[in-house]
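ok, trying the design again with the full structure, not the truncated one.
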């Protein structure tokens, strides 16, 4: 119903910046919230931040506050993750997700749709 495609990942040195994009297509009209999650090898998928589609409200996990910014372009149906001051511990596969739920936006299980993921590797 909703297709999500991430792009923009790659290899970057610590302290540099990277912008990820998540383009949505299909039936997107009922989406309440878009979020970014990340998953490092051998670890659980963890919440990075979200943005509400209608109002643009954002929320981030503590470890990325002040460094990461989520924005949206309603015309392009695209969500962005601007990552600044990247650290090696930010290395992970980054996924965008979408949910129509009105609560529990920090939990990966709340999201109904996922992109394929894009690898972000931060070298020390």
């Amino acid at each position: 119903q909703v297709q999500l495609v991430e792009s923009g990942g790659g290899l970057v040195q610590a302290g540099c910046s990277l912008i990820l994009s998540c383009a949505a297509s299909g039936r997107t009209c009922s989406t309440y919230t878009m979020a970014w999650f990340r998953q490092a090898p051998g670890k659980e998928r963890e919440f990075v931040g979200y943005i509400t589609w209608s109002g643009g409200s954002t929320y981030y996990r503590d470890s990325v506050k002040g460094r990461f910014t989520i924005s949206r372009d309603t015309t392009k149906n695209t969500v962005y993750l601007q990552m600044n001051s990247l650290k090696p511990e930010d290395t992970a596969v980054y996924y965008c997700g979408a949910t129509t739920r009105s609560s529990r936006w920090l939990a990966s299980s709340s999201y109904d749709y996922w992109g394929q993921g894009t690898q972000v590797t931060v070298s020390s």
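Keeping the full-length input from now on. The CA atoms of residues 1 and 71 lie 22 Å apart.
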